[in-house]
Structure formats: C-alpha cells, structure tokens
C-alpha cells in the first residue's frame, strides 16, 4: 500500500486479469463496475479489445467481452445498462449490454466520439465526424449542443465549452439547452496548448489546465478574470501531461507513470510512481478512485482526501461494524456527529441483499449466509463502502 501526498491517499494495485491497455471505467454502484480497453494510444488495432467486470468494488476483475483488433476507449452506464464506444479498422462502433455484461451487441454508428464525458444519465462527446461539434447522447436521442468546440467540461448541469479558435468560453447551467458567452478568457491558452486540455465549472469558479507549457488557471468570478497559478514544474512540462479536474481545489494528473496532485492551486506534488503508464484517473463518490493504464494496470483507493469543496464533503464518518456475540446481528457503532441516512448490503457477487433507511444501530443477519459482504453507507454529507465478514 502506498501513502499518497498531502491527501493521505492510499493506492494499491488490484488484479485485472488482463495485459491489455485499459482506458476507461464506470462504477454502477458500490460493488459493480466495468472497465474497457484495447488498442494503442491512438485507438488503432493492437491486441484485443476487452471489457472487464467487478462485483466486489474493484478488488478483482474478470473479462466479460473480448474481440481482436478492437479498441474500446470509453464505457458508461445508463439506467443500469452498459454502453461502450470502440474503433475497428477506422470505423466507429457502439457496444451495449442490457444484462450486466453477459451478452453484448455491436452496432456501427455514424458519429465518432472524442473526449467522452458523462453526467445526468447521458453521454457527452465531441464528434470528430462533424467538425468536433459537442453532442449529447442517450439510448434514444442524439442532440447537437454546440458546433465546432475545442474542448469542454461537464459537471452535473454545468457545461463549459471553449470554441475551436480558443479565444472564447461559453457556459450552460441547464445541461446544454442554452449557452452564454463569458466575458473573460485565460491568456496564454490557445490552440497550441489544446492537447489534453481540461476545463470545468463549479458555480462561479472555473478551472482550466492545459499543456505546452503545462499550467493551471482559475477564475472565481464566473470567467471574468483569470489568475495564472504557475507552471507545472520549472519548465512547464512536468507533472501533468494528462490531467483530471476533481474539485474546485484539487487536480490529479500524470506524467507517464507518476501520479501527481495539485491542491489549492499550490505547487504540484509527485504522489507515487506506479507500475505502468497512466491512461485514466477516475474518482467516484464515497472516496472511491481508480487509476488505469498499460499492461492491465489498475490501482484503487477508498481514501481520496482533498475533495472537500463548498458542494462536496468527503470526510469519512467514524463508523464501525461489529458482529454481535449472538451471531445474528451486526452492530453499528457511529461515534461521529453525522447520522446515517441508509445502509445497503451486497454479497461478493454484487447482489443486493438488504437495504435499511434511517440512523440504524444494528442489522439483522440471521437470514444471511456466513461470509464476506460489502456495506455501502450513506450519510447526509458522504458515502463510502466497507467490507465486513458476517459470522
């Protein structure tokens, strides 16, 4: 286990059971998730395209789909069904499973998704076949939100777009129905800095990170004025040639195999060096995070600190689970001031076996088989999962 930077993140490698390059991940709930990969870094044929599944919160993964020369570069879930985008010999494909990964259909699509993001039961992307128009896709609709976009970011109903000329920012607060041009723009951020550039809005705070030279800029007045927060390292080329904006005060990035962090717009810190080149950093609710990369690399953490913002609080409450001496109850000890909202219990296969609402103090386990379970706890300010052995 590796202690990470000032956030005390603890990352550890889990077994993916593949050697393919992994590129994207989605967690449907606390236990069940899917991961996709295959192809080279440009999504050209190389090895097998794979989709992996976990039913134990990402501790172990099994291959549920594999096809030669397929590059599966994005995956997401809508209404508990799984969708993935792939390339085969230059053509674009949509993969779909309605039965949790048992069976998969493959359909040729006319659009070519690039920079795929997810929010509000929809998939957003720039269409490389349509001059990089920003589009919103659901299983029943495909809508054009804005033409000719350079880069963009989605955060719930907030969408920010930079035009292809890289001189204007447009923002929507209604999921892309309407956009307003912001009055300011971060100087230095032009087309030459567009590779792997990211932008995200958190209310009136906007954060952008770009490359060549790599730097972060922030606006706290809804894009009117921008503050340059310095370059990534002495020459602006270290720490984050790939970056994810996690919160309005936290960026996670990679430079080859190093996982790095920037908190409160201070200098970047090298947190840890992983086993292979990093291709994806994904943070989910409840302090759950994954890092994916080459040669089947998956690292996991359940302790992502530093995510606290005005809208998100992630401090894990002091909650313990204790087997009762009678062996038919699981006692819940909550020493924090945060009451429990609900508890959901899953077996190791990912099957939901119990749901309890309210600030409960015990769980009746008399009807459960002896073994390992995963408990998903939700409070008024946080959620997290924990393994427990029921006797």
UniProtKB/TrEMBL annotation:
Give the source's domain of life in one word.
Bacteria
Pfam family example for this protein? Por_Secre_tail
Location of the Secretion system C-terminal sorting domain: 328-390
The record's keywords, sorted A to Z, are:
Signal
Which SUPFAM superfamilies does this one have? Answer: Oligoxyloglucan reducing end-specific cellobiohydrolase (SSF110296)
Q: Does the keyword Signal apply?
A: yes
InterPro entries, alphabetized: Secre_tail, WD40/YVTN_repeat-like_dom_sf
Entry coiled-coil feature ranges: none
Please identify the protein, giving its name as recorded.
Answer: Secretion system C-terminal sorting domain-containing protein
Q: Which organism is it from?
A: Neptunitalea lumnitzerae
């Amino acid at each position: 286990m590796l202690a990470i930077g000032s956030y005390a993140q603890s990352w550890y490698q889990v077994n993916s059971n593949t050697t393919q390059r992994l590129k994207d991940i989605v967690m449907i709930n606390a236990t069940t998730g899917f991961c996709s990969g295959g192809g080279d870094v440009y999504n050209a044929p190389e090895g097998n395209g794979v989709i992996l599944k976990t039913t134990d919160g990402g501790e172990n993964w099994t291959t549920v789909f594999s096809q030669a020369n397929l590059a599966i570069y994005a995956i997401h879930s809508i209404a508990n069904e799984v969708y993935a985008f792939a390339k085969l010999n230059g053509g674009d494909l949509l993969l779909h499973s309605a039965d949790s990964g048992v069976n998969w259909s493959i359909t040729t699509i006319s659009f070519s998704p690039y920079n795929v993001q997810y929010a509000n039961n929809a998939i957003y992307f720039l269409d490389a076949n349509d001059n990089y128009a920003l589009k919103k896709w659901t299983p029943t609709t495909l809508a054009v939100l804005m033409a000719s976009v350079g880069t963009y970011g989605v955060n719930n109903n907030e969408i920010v777009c930079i035009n292809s000329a890289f001189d204007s920012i447009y923002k929507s607060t209604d999921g892309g129905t309407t956009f307003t041009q912001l009055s300011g723009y971060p100087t230095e951020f032009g087309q030459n800095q567009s590779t792997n550039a990211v932008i995200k809005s958190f209310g009136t705070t906007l954060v952008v990170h770009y490359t060549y030279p790599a730097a972060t800029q922030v606006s706290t007045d809804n894009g009117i004025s921008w503050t340059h927060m310095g370059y990534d390292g002495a020459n602006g080329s270290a720490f984050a040639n790939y970056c994810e904006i996690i919160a309005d005060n936290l960026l996670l990035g990679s430079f080859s195999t190093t996982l790095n962090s920037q908190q409160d717009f201070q200098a970047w810190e090298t947190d840890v060096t992983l086993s292979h080149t990093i291709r994806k950093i994904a943070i989910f609710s409840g302090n759950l995070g994954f890092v994916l990369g080459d040669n089947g690399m998956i690292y996991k953490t359940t302790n992502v600190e530093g995510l606290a913002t005005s809208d998100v609080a992630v401090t894990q409450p002091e909650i313990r689970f204790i087997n009762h001496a009678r062996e038919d109850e699981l006692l819940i000890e909550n020493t924090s001031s945060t009451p429990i909202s609900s508890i959901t219990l899953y077996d190791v296969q990912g099957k939901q076996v119990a749901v309890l609402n309210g600030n409960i103090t015990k769980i009746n386990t008399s009807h459960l088989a002896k073994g390992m379970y995963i408990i998903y706890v939700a409070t008024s300010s946080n959620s997290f999962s924990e393994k427990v052995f029921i006797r």
